[in-house]
Structure to design on (434 residues):
């Protein structure tokens, strides 16, 4: 069985550690409930032998190139991928939580694929609303939808962890937020039915599944219903993008976390007239796309987050 | 198109109205039938026009938006990048709810009133 089954009691519930934020990606380490310092390579290597490390990138918005200080979405994605390839410990795979492209153009997906493939990692995608600009979602699904259900949802297992990629950017309703829809919810309920409550669950989707700031559309209308199917699991981690900033909430055994964008930052909720791209000086941009380390400490439910600018 | 312009003028539309040159001119010179998209909001959020009016949405944001009818009363726009526009001519009276299909919390309404008297377009 998995490594996680070797732990007893509550400790197995506390198995998720987000080890290191690397540039515009997030490096997650899941291991058997043992906290560790990411700064010590030998220890990190030992952790890797027992656990699972994967990377999250998000919101590359390839094609958003026309306004200062964001002249080069490909360039900032290349910088992020360069950070990935420079990691001393190779992640098992990468997830991309959507808005790969800015306008769902084939050329934009091409550019993204060309850069991301340089990481030489398997990549598990979910779409953002910018990847579904074409009404039938054909461009995204042709490229990334193989083996998925419906509008592109799926699940897979890695090292005893069950990963679920959800799509909440299709069939959007006037006045609504992100949407999963009944078909996907029914699939989700069936997907996790019968799984042991000790199975660690990682859910990833583009728009936050919890209500971050509905006034800006930062939430998912039927996200709570999806989470109701998952709350019996001792460890549930929900990874999202969309809001181009780090945000975290912990509720009991559920950790919600959003990743930075590789392209541009967005303002904190309510701090600007709209959620449009933040106007930051060019020399400050990479400080908005900086590094943050997130560490889980055993005996505490909260992840400790330490942000470190990529530059400056 | 001239009849449309007259209808709007009767409504007390802003000075400078002029649709005679067709849709292209209407985009630039017909504020009463224009909706601006600023800061993720439609402005005005509710617009009342006479039947036959061409309404033009223009995206002034740095992020793309898209126009879609809430009940498929009209074909949705392509994605509107910064300064892109989309126009639709409302010929039938009624209330048209629409939203941004990229950011669906953004909603707006076009109320189309019957054209009357000598201004009738039919």
């Amino acid at each position: 069985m998995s490594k996680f089954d070797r732990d007893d009691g509550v400790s197995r519930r506390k198995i998720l550690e987000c080890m290191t934020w690397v540039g515009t990606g997030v490096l997650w380490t899941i291991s058997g409930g043992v906290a560790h310092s990411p700064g010590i390579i030998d220890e990190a290597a030992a952790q890797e032998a027992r656990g699972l490390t994967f990377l999250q990138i998000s919101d590359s918005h390839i094609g958003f190139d026309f306004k200062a200080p964001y002249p080069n979405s490909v360039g900032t994605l290349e910088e992020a991928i360069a950070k990935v390839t420079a990691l001393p410990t190779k992640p098992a795979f990468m997830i991309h939580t959507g808005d790969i492209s800015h306008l769902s153009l084939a050329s934009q997906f091409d550019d993204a694929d060309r850069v991301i493939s340089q990481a030489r990692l398997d990549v598990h995608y979910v779409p953002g609303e910018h990847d579904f600009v074409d009404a039938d979602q054909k461009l995204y699904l042709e490229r990334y939808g193989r083996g998925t259900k419906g509008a592109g949802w799926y699940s897979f297992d890695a090292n005893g962890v069950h990963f679920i990629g959800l799509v909440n950017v299709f069939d959007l309703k006037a006045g609504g937020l992100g949407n999963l829809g009944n078909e996907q919810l029914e699939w989700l309920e069936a997907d996790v039915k019968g799984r042991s409550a000790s199975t660690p669950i990682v859910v990833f989707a583009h728009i936050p599944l919890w209500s971050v700031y509905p006034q800006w559309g930062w939430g998912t209308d039927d996200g709570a219903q999806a989470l109701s199917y998952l709350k019996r699991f001792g460890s549930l981690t929900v990874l999202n993008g969309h809001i181009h900033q780090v945000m975290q909430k912990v509720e009991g055994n559920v950790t919600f976390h959003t990743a930075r964008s590789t392209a541009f930052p967005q303002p904190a909720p309510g701090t600007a007239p709209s959620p449009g791209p933040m106007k930051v000086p060019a020399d400050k941009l990479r400080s908005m796309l900086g590094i943050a380390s997130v560490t889980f400490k055993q005996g505490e439910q909260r992840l400790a987050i330490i942000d470190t600018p990529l530059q400056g | 198109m001239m009849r449309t312009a007259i209808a709007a003028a009767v409504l007390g539309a802003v000075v400078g109205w002029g649709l005679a040159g067709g849709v292209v001119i209407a985009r630039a010179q017909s504020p009463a039938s224009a909706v601006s998209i600023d800061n993720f909001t439609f402005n005005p959020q509710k617009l009342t026009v006479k039947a036959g009016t061409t309404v033009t949405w223009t995206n002034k944001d740095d992020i793309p938006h898209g126009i879609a009818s809430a009940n498929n009363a009209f074909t949705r726009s392509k994605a509107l990048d910064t300064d892109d526009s989309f126009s639709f001519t409302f010929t039938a009276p009624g209330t048209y709810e629409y939203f941004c299909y990229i950011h669906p919390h953004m909603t707006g309404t076009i109320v189309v009133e019957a054209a009357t008297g000598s201004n009738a377009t039919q």
The CA atoms of residues 181 and 222 of chain A lie 7 Å apart. The two ends of chain A are 45 Å apart (CA to CA).
